[in-house]
Write a structure and sequence with these properties.
Layout: H1 2-8, E1 22-25, H2 33-42, E2 48-52, H3 55-59, H4 63-72, E3 76-80, H5 89-102, E4 106-111, H6 113-128, E5 137-138, E6 148-152, E7 164-167, E8 176-179, E9 187-190, H7 200-219, H8 241-263, H9 268-288, H10 292-304, H11 308-323, H12 328-337, H13 347-364, H14 381-388, H15 392-395, H16 404-415
Parallel strand pairs: 1-9, 2-3, 2-4, 4-6, 5-8, 6-9
Antiparallel strand pairs: 7-8
This protein binds nicotinamide-adenine-dinucleotide and fe (ii) ion.
Fe (ii) ion binds at residues 157, 209, 212-213, 294, 308, 312.
Length: 420
């Protein structure tokens, strides 16, 4: 077989993973920011670190330990604190203009996914110039970007280890992604203590984003069934043993600790579990990819201007029902790891129950009412489905072939809460 492949020149299927160069995890980890930045060359003459963050985090006191650690290691530091939720293209370009006069050698994203993606965007523009839209889509970033260190303060996006950055762009009907292996941060510094000040809604939305990443990675097309990638450079290559292991553990951690972290933000064990869940789910989707939840959330996020994780939470049960005919075994495993199911249920029944367990988990976090609660109406369904159908890099990872009519059916399913 191997000899046949070699002589035919065919490319055998393979999976690959892309992850941060160095991951540091633990309570108090933030205090090693300076040492790491110094190792990254940040103390060389004339070099400086630019921290991308926002005023909410500065007011919460989360910027202070980062600045103190950087300065104690002898680094020059500048701060851009104009980050915003669901960060927009204009903000990235504004930050890059400010940064170009400072000539940083290291970008530090301190915050949720929005600020980490802001740092990735600025690092891309400083390295390669031009406007941000030049880099939209897959593999449009021509080479290495400036070094990025990610310090997440939410537990959800996995951006600290992912090859993706997501932006709002007022000129488009979709949120846009820049996807490239060059966007993976060199350093991911995960300190669960930084998430303690997250308000309950941010804990809920970002936690459901992590769950969406894990379930989408578990349900993705298998790597053996995706188009072979001759260069082995594609980030999203389908589900594989690596992504499955991490994603299942992420589901368990969410099942055990998301409601606890939401109800008591000071529950440090729950905060630590959720940060680990976010990391594992991020590593899983960074290799396997995401699917219809994320493809549909791109236009929904742009239309409704609501948080990414909130839209995902409302879409996830409907997408699980869509995947159910071909993913019963894995959905059963998901269901057994979430609250509300006994370990002994047979696979078929367990898989049937899993979508409603996700909806019940979301409801326990105050997320109810279907997409209608975001202001999506019946008239929006056709344009939303048409837009989502263009996100081919995610649609092609669906375990079932998808038509625009299927996307409309999923949206109708997610529009209103189930009766009863
Ligand atoms: N790059 C990726 O791989 C990836 C993956 C998923 C989502 N995303 C993107 O990430 C963004 C969402 O990120 P998010 O869910 O982390 O939220 P966010 O970064 O948008 O933050 C939401 C709000 O919470 C505040 N906040 C964050 N941490 C806090 C803390 N510890 N204490 C108090 N307030 C805090 C922020 O200041 C902000 O006002 C979206 O733009 C989404 O598209 C990116
Ligand atoms: Fe996400």
């Amino acid at each position: 077989m191997a000899a046949d492949l070699a002589s035919s020149g065919a490319v055998p299927p393979a999976w690959a993973y892309t992850s941060a160069g160095r991951v540091i995890f633990g309570r108090g980890a933030v205090h090693s920011a300076g040492q790491l930045a110094a190792q990254a060359g940040g103390t060389a003459a004339g070099s400086m670190a630019l921290v991308c963050t926002d005023t909410v985090l500065a007011a919460a006191g989360l910027l202070d330990p980062v600045l103190a650690s950087l300065r104690s290691s002898g680094l020059e530091v500048a701060v851009f604190d104009g980050g915003e939720p669901e960060v927009g293209r204009a903000t990235v370009e504004r930050a890059a203009r400010m940064a170009s006069s400072k000539r940083p050698s290291l970008l530090i994203g301190l915050g949720g996914g929005s600020n980490i993606d802001l740092a990735k965007g600025v690092a891309t523009l400083l390295a390669h110039g031009g406007d941000l839209d030049r880099y939209y889509g897959d593999s449009a970033v021509p080479g290495e970007i400036l070094p990025v260190m990610a310090i997440p303060t939410t537990a959800g996006t996995g951006s600290e280890v992912s090859p993706v950055a997501v932006f709002a762009d007022d000129a488009r009907r979709m949120k846009v992604g820049v996807s490239s292996a060059h966007l993976v941060p060199g350093w991911a510094l995960l300190d669960p203590l930084l998430t303690v000040s997250c308000p309950p809604s941010v804990t809920a939305h970002s936690g459901m984003d992590a769950l969406s990443h894990a379930i989408e990675a578990l349900c993705a097309l298998a790597y053996t069934d995706t188009e072979p990638d001759a260069s082995r450079s594609r980030a999203f290559c389908g589900k594989n043993p690596y992504s499955d292991t991490l994603a299942l553990e992420a589901v368990s951690l969410v099942g055990r600790s998301l409601i606890r972290a939401y109800r008591d933000g000071g529950d440090l064990q729950a905060r630590e579990d959720m940060m680990l869940a976010s990391l594992f789910a991020g590593l899983a989707f960074a290799s396997a990819g995401t699917g219809l939840v994320h493809a549909l959330q791109y236009p929904i996020g742009a239309l409704t201007k609501t948080p990414h994780g909130l839209g995902n939470a409302l879409l996830l049960p409907a997408v699980m029902r869509f995947n159910r005919p071909v993913r019963a075994a894995v959905l059963a495993q998901v269901g057994r790891r979430l609250p509300g199911q006994s370990a002994s249920r047979p696979d078929e029944a367990a898989a049937d129950q899993a979508p409603s367990q996700v909806a019940e988990l979301a409801a326990a976090l105050g997320i109810r009412g279907g997409l209608a609660a975001l202001g999506v109406g019946a008239a929006d369904i056709a344009p939303l489905a048409a837009d989502a159908a263009t996100v081919t890099r995610l649609i092609q990872l669906s375990p079932r072939p998808v038509t625009t009519a299927d996307l409309e059916a999923v949206l109708r399913d997610a529009l209103e809460p189930p009766a009863g």
